[in-house]
Design a protein that fits this description.
single chain, TIM Barrel, 10 strands, binds ribulose-5-phosphate
């Protein structure tokens, strides 16, 4: 691995081998989704606790201070919307020159295995890897978003994750599932877990993050279950404790409650 690639990977994956990526890219197909209506307000209080931000160029330029940032994973696929025909029909939306200009640590793109656009999205990934490798920029492949979430089982996620790794992704983002160790075992590059739509209790999030870490994930790329929570700073601190301090779900819950207790809603 060349120095630039190694350096970028080291910006993303911390010295303990783990990472907490904060995705705030959802607007690229969801528009001003709940609690991300004004991205700067969502991002600023959480930034100190994230190891990297997953974000589009538009929100990066408009809503993140270049003097006070974290490593950037640039979302470079899109071209669809919640109200359009098919979320899987994404293309590459950003050039490699733009990624270099923005000094990003990585680029991220979705693949849609099992859909009508499987072939296109996998070739998008391969092309992006070709460009990224030329300039030492790693690619994170994002598996199974949108309707594909229905297929949240180990067999499907292992298939998608392995294909992403085979095509050259340096990191794969997938979802936690039962038998998650099968997904990790079949994927020869590091795996991070997304959260998906907000779940009912904080403890559920702490439990799946903890279980996934025990089974070999290196961290999370977890958004809505942090910033849609009423106490997002408490939430990110608790998840950080699981990832970087090996906290149990119970310890994470206690930390969440104690940070929440010091907080007035909306004034974290
Ligand atoms: C959305 C994404 C997100 O980065 C990913 O889904 C993680 O966010 P969440 O934890 O909210 O699911 O790719 O396009």
């Amino acid at each position: 691995m060349d120095w630039g690639m190694k350096n970028r990977m080291a910006q993303l994956i911390q010295a303990d081998g783990h990472c907490l990526f904060l995705p705030v890219d959802h607007g690229y197909f969801q528009g001003p989704t709940r609690k991300l209506e004004e991205p700067r307000k969502t991002i600023e209080p959480l930034l100190p606790y994230a190891d990297a931000l997953f974000i589009t160029r538009g929100v990066l330029r408009s809503s993140v201070d270049p003097n006070n940032s974290k490593p950037i994973i640039l979302r470079v696929s899109g071209g669809t919307s919640m109200v359009g025909k098919d979320l899987a029909n994404e293309g590459i939306t950003t050039s490699i020159e733009e990624a270099i200009r923005l000094n990003v640590a990585a680029m991220g793109l979705s693949i849609f295995v099992g859909t009508d656009y499987e072939h296109d999205s996998l070739l998008n990934l391969a092309r992006l890897v070709n460009e990224g490798e030329k300039y030492g920029i790693p690619v994170m492949a994002v598996t199974a978003v949108g309707k594909e979430l229905g297929k949240r089982d180990a067999r499907f996620l292992a298939l998608s994750s392995r294909i992403a790794a085979e095509l050259g992704a340096r990191v794969v983002k997938t979802y936690w599932c039962e038998d998650f160790e099968k997904v990790v075992r079949g994927c020869p590059v590091p795996i991070v877990m997304a959260g998906g739509p907000q779940v009912d209790t904080e403890l559920e999030v702490f439990e799946f993050v903890h279980d996934g870490m025990q089974k070999g994930a290196i961290g999370v790329n977890l958004g809505r279950n942090i910033w849609q929570n009423d106490f997002p700073v408490a939430m990110i601190k608790a998840i950080r404790a699981i990832i970087h301090e090996n906290a149990s779900p119970k310890e994470a819950q206690e930390l969440y409650e104690s940070v929440k207790g010091e907080t007035v809603i909306g004034c974290e």
